[in-house]
Design a protein that fits this description.
Elements (H helix, E strand, L loop, with lengths): L3 E3 L9 E3 L1 E3 L4 H14 L3 E4 L15 E4 L6 E5 L4 E5 L4 H11 L7 E2 L12 H7 L15 E7 L5 E5 L4 H7 L8 E8 L1 E2 L2 E10 H13 L4 E6 L11 E9 L15 H13 L1 H14 L4 E3 L12 H8 L6 E11 L3 H12 L6 E8 L15 E11 L2 H20 L3 E2 L9 H7 L3 H11 L8 H9 L4
Parallel strand pairs: 3-5, 4-5
Antiparallel strand pairs: 1-2, 6-7, 7-11, 8-12, 9-10, 9-11, 13-15, 13-16, 14-15, 14-18, 17-19, 17-20, 18-19
Helix pairs in contact: 6-7, 9-10
Bound molecules: flavin-adenine dinucleotide.
């Protein structure tokens, strides 16, 4: 068969055969590729580091533009705390580049937030999904974006900001590559700070008051990693709350501190699959030992991700079918969090679709992006569920996620579009009443349908757009 088979990194549930892959190394090469695609009548899909899990980055038969070659680090504005950065830069490269640029300086500007659980994600992919990290009082990343440059469907280069091409600014952030190729981003930074990690084991009913206390004490980051043992009364109830509070700049940073190394993560992942009672004990005792440890505000957001970890697990346990994990993120008004978690525990406690990992975080309302998922100050609940890659396994996971979405919606919440595309049309319409308008605006900005992905095609069909 002709073409190149692509898939996403984490769930591996999106095998898609693209016609060709091009990896432009400059904005000029992006423009040339788009003009050539237009001349040939080719549809174009856009990828960064390939972590989205609903086919947002691939389209069957398309020309795939892989943007990971756009890694220029432009001007650092020390007065306003911004940097112009290539959309293909991944977070570790960006952080290292910023440190190198400011070696020995008293104030070091660095990133404000990034995703947790994986680092090799690009800036372009992060904008296109309007991501968030574990900030306690942060908006999604749109709040960190001053402007970006986009090459549109006609191959025109456009600067987009709140003042210039403002509609495209609101659409392309959180627009999953439907409106053009982001080539570079002017990102707002924050002075790098020393922070102390505060760790406690608590329960879901005490979480929000505990977080409020921590925020009043000055904590800027935090998350609650809950028990995944479906046979325990602690399931989705008891968890480890880690918060991070700035400390005086003259506090001595340790040469070494206890970290979760690669082999610890391998062990934790194995336990999460075959001893879900133990994994919480191992995990929480590690975190409790790090209570009071010091971290930098940027690098504490980095974490280990084990590429292809599931293939190894499958081999070890002689799995009959390959498996992986699929993530979902559900949002609920904060005052409904406890009820939502109890209802979710009721749905998942039969263990038919095991929870491998889960956290609760907070988000501030995003009043700017068109397809805003943070419609209000939500609590965010992340579930990483085990999926066996046969028809029954996929349907079981899809059904569980649809039920979790129904629950979130019944509490006035929403869900993230970055992951699978298993939501029903009515669920999308309820969470995103503006979705049909989003598709119409896509058509307005891209009348020839230059930018196409399996994700866009699925939604166009679901909403019966021409
Ligand atoms: C293990 C794991 C942990 C995660 N944790 C979090 C988290 O904590 N918070 C969170 O918010 N998300 C999280 N995510 C989701 C992730 O942030 C998004 O899927 C993100 O889009 C991935 O970036 P990427 O570089 O891999 O992009 P890809 O997956 O390659 O692409 C994603 C989307 O971005 C578009 N895109 C990519 N580059 C460009 C560009 N230059 N111009 C225009 N469009 C572009 C693509 O077309 C596609 O629609 C996680 C995902 C995984 C697998």
């Amino acid at each position: 068969m002709i073409g190149i088979l692509c898939n996403d990194i984490h769930s591996k549930l999106n095998p898609t055969r693209v016609a060709r892959v091009l990896r432009p190394a400059s904005e000029a090469e992006v423009v040339a590729a788009l003009k050539e695609a237009a001349a040939d009548g080719m549809a174009v899909s856009i990828c960064g580091a390939r972590h989205a899990m609903g086919g947002q980055q691939f389209g069957e038969g398309t020309l795939l533009l892989d943007l990971t070659g756009l890694t220029d680090l432009g001007e650092l504005d020390r007065e306003h705390g911004t940097i112009e950065a290539g959309a293909g830069l991944k977070w570790p490269e960006l952080i290292e580049g910023l440190h190198a640029r400011q070696a020995g300086e008293e104030v070091v500007w660095s990133i404000r937030q990034k995703q947790t659980g994986a680092d090799d994600l690009t800036l372009g992919g992060s904008l296109a999904a309007n991501i968030h990290g574990r900030g306690l009082d942060f908006r999604p990343i749109i709040g960190d974006v001053e402007a970006f440059t986009l090459v549109d469907a006609a191959g025109e280069v456009r600067r987009c900001s709140r003042e210039e091409n403002a509609e495209l600014f609101r659409l392309a952030i959180g627009g999953y590559g439907c409106f053009g190729v982001i080539t570079s981003v002017c990102l707002r930074l924050a002075p790098r700070m020393k922070m102390e990690r505060l760790v406690e084991v608590t329960t879901i009913d005490r979480l929000l008051p505990a977080l409020e206390t921590r925020m009043a004490e000055g904590c800027r980051f935090g998350d609650f990693q809950f028990s995944i043992d479906e046979r325990s009364p602690d399931f989705l109830r008891r968890g480890v709350l880690s918060s991070y509070r700035p400390v005086a700049p003259d506090r001595e940073m340790p040469e070494r501190r206890e970290e979760l190394e690669r082999h610890h993560w391998e062990e934790l992942i194995r336990l999460a699959h075959d001893d879900r009672a133990k994994v919480f004990e191992v995990y929480s005792s590690f975190y409790l030992r790090t209570h009071g440890a010091l971290y930098w505000s940027d690098t504490h957001q980095l974490s280990v991700y084990l590429d292809d970890y599931h293939a190894e697990l499958d081999r070890e346990c002689g799995a009959l079918v390959p498996a992986s994990e699929m993530i979902s993120e559900l949002y609920v008004p904060r005052e409904r969090l406890v009820e939502f978690m109890a209802a979710a525990a009721g749905r998942l406690k039969d263990g038919a679709v095991p929870v491998i990992y889960g956290t609760v975080r907070l988000i501030r309302r995003d009043g700017e992006s068109f397809l805003a998922w943070a419609r209000e100050d939500f609590a965010c609940v992340i579930f990483n569920l085990h999926v066996e890659h046969d028809e029954a396994g996929i349907e079981a996971a899809a059904g569980a996620f649809r039920d979790l979405i129904d629950l979130a919606l019944s509490f006035g919440g929403s869900f993230f579009l970055t992951y699978h595309r298993w939501a029903r049309c009515d669920q999308i319409e309820r969470a995103y009443p503006q979705f049909a308008e989003f598709l119409r605006l896509k058509e307005k900005h891209d009348p020839e349908g230059r930018f196409q992905s399996e994700w866009w095609r699925h939604h166009r069909n679901l909403f019966e757009m021409p």
